[in-house]
Specification:
single chain, 9 helices, 77% helix
């Protein structure tokens, strides 16, 4: 009985360490942490991947109730958190772009209920759907899970990721949120800027004209037309953003 209990305890220690990393990644990653991917799905995925990893690599026996065990818990959670935050920053770029475009078109108050996020502007909802569909269409879920599984070879259990180099790369990657939002929203913003300039000339030429009613209609119509015309380039920029996200994850966790 004692031998069976010890064997069961060793299997539990071999399963808990990859389970912590995978669970932290699914909890913080942008696509996998939404309400559509509920807790049951995330737990089943975590257990399946952890069981597969525990059979493929050698996992040292570390008691989680000791000092080194607690440090290893934080280390595994941090690795999963770092991988999830890379995806969160990429998704935040799409969110900021949608908010900026909605505000420039005068659609800030026009919101819809997204069951995964809550009340969001309509353009932000469109960008979220485009980004998620593009992520799935290009096989992003397979790519990130492949990087996650390969990370156990580069950063095996008991190897720390909490280094100054990793912190610097994560901080530098956070700038991608603003770069991606500017690139995605740039066609609409530049067009609406010229529309605003034209409305300024119209206001000076005809001061009696009600510029608020005319300007709102012009901004709304121009915004939708340019958004429709720039949709292929917008999808291309989102595709570039996801490719950069995969490259950043590979550079950080696979070398």
């Amino acid at each position: 009985m004692n031998l069976e209990m010890l064997n069961l305890l060793d299997k539990f220690y071999a399963l808990i360490w990859p389970l912590l990393r995978i669970t932290a990644f699914l909890a913080f990653a942008s696509i996998f942490s939404i309400r559509a991917v509920n807790l049951r799905i995330r737990m089943v995925l975590s257990l399946a991947f952890a069981f597969f990893i525990s059979m493929q690599i050698d996992i040292p026996v570390i008691d989680p109730l000791t000092g080194p065990g607690l440090a290893e818990i934080f280390n595994q959670v941090f690795i999963g958190f770092a991988m999830g935050m890379i995806m969160q920053i990429a998704t935040a770029g799409v969110v900021v772009a949608g908010q900026v475009v909605s505000g420039s078109m005068g659609l800030t108050m026009a919101t819809l209920i997204d069951p995964n996020v809550g009340n969001v502007p309509v353009i932000l909802g469109l960008f979220n759907v485009l980004g998620t569909l593009l992520f799935l269409a290009m096989g992003g879920h397979l790519i990130v899970f492949g990087i996650l599984l390969d990370s156990f070879n580069v950063f095996p259990i008991a190897k720390s990721l909490m280094t100054q180099d990793v912190y610097g790369k994560m901080l530098a990657w956070s700038a991608m949120m603003f770069l991606a939002s500017v690139l995605i929203a740039l066609p609409v913003l530049m067009t609406l800027l010229f529309v605003n300039v034209g409305l300024g000339f119209v206001t000076r030429a005809a001061p009696s004209l009600n510029i608020f009613s005319v300007g709102f209609s012009a901004m709304l119509m121009a915004g939708f037309v340019i958004l429709w015309l720039a949709l292929p380039s917008t999808v291309g920029r989102m595709n570039w953003l996801w490719v950069q996200t995969y490259a950043q994850m590979r550079a950080l966790f696979l070398g």
